């Protein structure tokens, strides 16, 4: 107990410091390179920034990236009135002069086209106009043409495909009739048309191809087929499209869907921010090309529906606000000044 010797030997702090100083004084091994020591390893945050930059280049994935169809429509600086539309929807003829329709106390003009409930006919016209600009202002150098989308190898009808089919650009009306036929027969919604355009531009970006006269029908058909299955709860089967397009087989539709998904890398997610961006860019495209959804006077029934929706949203906001107030009530009581009645004797 009182002996100065012990069976447990421990080094003093001075010895440990001397040993550490000896380790630091030794020169580093010059044979090790920077790759061996790990000095050139990229930080994980730097790698994530690179991926984010790649996403920003793809408008179908990132909400801040500009849509391809809007940039292509502005590339040539030409504004074309399509579908025979003129700017008569916003104006009314009164005593030989054009006057713009304005809302007043007695009449309110609203267009039947919102981001939550787009107008079907107007949305299909805008989407087909975007496809038209994709074909018109495509890369003239000629990017790769995949066989699965080649109409010469996989025709949609028994009609003979002309030899110069890859040189004749389709008109807006031709694209509109093709898309409208599919949407009318399959009873698809306007939201499905916007998702179709998102998938189409995602395919062009991922697969690095261009939509041209030789492949536009099969690319649009594949995008509509996939969008209808992702968006609608009761999707249209592939065999149903064979009844719309009489000369196409189920095996061809299955192969088209499979190849389309593989080229999209099975990325079928459409964020709400991307959907809203495409909707408002389509409206900008329509306004630049004299294509407007005609405003109609607000009827009594529609006003009552809008009032009911507004009241429902107001009630939900009040419930959320009341729940927040309950959660923070105990903390507020601690900090708040409480007035206590005093008893004066």
UniProtKB/TrEMBL annotation:
Is Ribosomal protein among this UniProt entry's keywords? no
Q: Please list the residue ranges annotated as the Cyclin-like domain.
A: 177-262
List where Polar residues composition bias occurs. Answer: 1-13
* UniProt keyword annotations, A-Z: Cyclin
Pfam families hit by this protein? Cyclin_N
The keyword ATP-binding is annotated on this UniProt entry: no
InterPro entries per the record?
A: Cyclin-like_dom (IPR013763), Cyclin-like_sf (IPR036915), Cyclin_N (IPR006671), Cyclin_Y (IPR012399)
Report the leader peptide range.
none
Q: Which domain of life is it from?
A: Eukaryota
GO molecular function per UniProt: protein kinase binding
Q: Positions of the region Disordered?
A: 1-36
* SMART domains reported in the protein's UniProt record: CYCLIN
From start to end residue, where is composition biased (Basic and acidic residues)?
21-36
**Record's PANTHER family?**
CYCLIN Y, ISOFORM A
Similarity comment: Belongs to the cyclin family. Cyclin Y subfamily.
Protein name as annotated: Cyclin-Y-like isoform X3
At the highest ranks, the source species' classification is: Eukaryota, Metazoa, Chordata, Craniata, Vertebrata
């Amino acid at each position: 107990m009182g002996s100065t010797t012990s069976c447990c030997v421990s080094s003093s702090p001075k010895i440990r410091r001397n040993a550490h100083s000896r380790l630091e004084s030794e020169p580093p091994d010059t044979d090790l390179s920077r790759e061996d020591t790990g000095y050139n390893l990229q930080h994980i945050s730097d790698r994530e920034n690179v991926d984010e930059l790649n996403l920003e280049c793809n408008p179908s994935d990132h909400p801040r990236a500009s849509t391809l169809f809007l940039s292509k429509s502005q590339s040539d600086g030409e504004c074309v009135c399509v579908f025979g539309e003129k700017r008569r929807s916003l104006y009314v003829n009164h005593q030989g002069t054009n006057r713009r329709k304005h809302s007043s106390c007695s009449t309110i003009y609203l267009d039947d086209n919102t981001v939550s409930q787009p107008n079907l006919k107007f949305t299909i016209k805008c989407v087909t106009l975007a496809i038209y600009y994709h074909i018109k202002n495509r890369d003239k150098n000629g990017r790769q043409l995949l066989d699965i989308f080649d109409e010469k190898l996989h025709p949609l009808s028994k009609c003979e495909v002309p030899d110069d089919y890859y040189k004749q650009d389709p008109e807006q009306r031709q694209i509109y009739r093709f898309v409208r036929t599919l949407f009318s027969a399959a009873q698809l919604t306007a939201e499905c048309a916007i998702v179709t355009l998102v998938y189409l531009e995602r395919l062009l970006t991922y697969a690095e191809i261009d939509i041209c006269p030789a492949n536009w029908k099969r690319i649009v058909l594949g995008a509509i087929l996939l969008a209808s299955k992702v968006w609608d709860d009761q999707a249209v089967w592939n065999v149903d499209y064979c009844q719309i397009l009489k000369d196409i087989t189920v095996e061809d539709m299955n192969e088209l869907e499979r190849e389309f998904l593989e080229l999209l890398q099975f990325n079928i997610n459409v964020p709400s921010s991307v959907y809203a961006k495409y909707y408002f860019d389509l409206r900008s495209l329509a306004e630049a090309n004299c294509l407007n959804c005609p405003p109609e006077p607000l009827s009594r029934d529609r006003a009552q529906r809008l009032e009911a929706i507004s009241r429902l949203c107001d009630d939900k906001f009040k419930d959320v606000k009341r729940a927040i107030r309950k959660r923070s009530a105990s903390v507020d009581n601690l900090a708040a000044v409480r007035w206590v009645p005093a008893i004066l004797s």
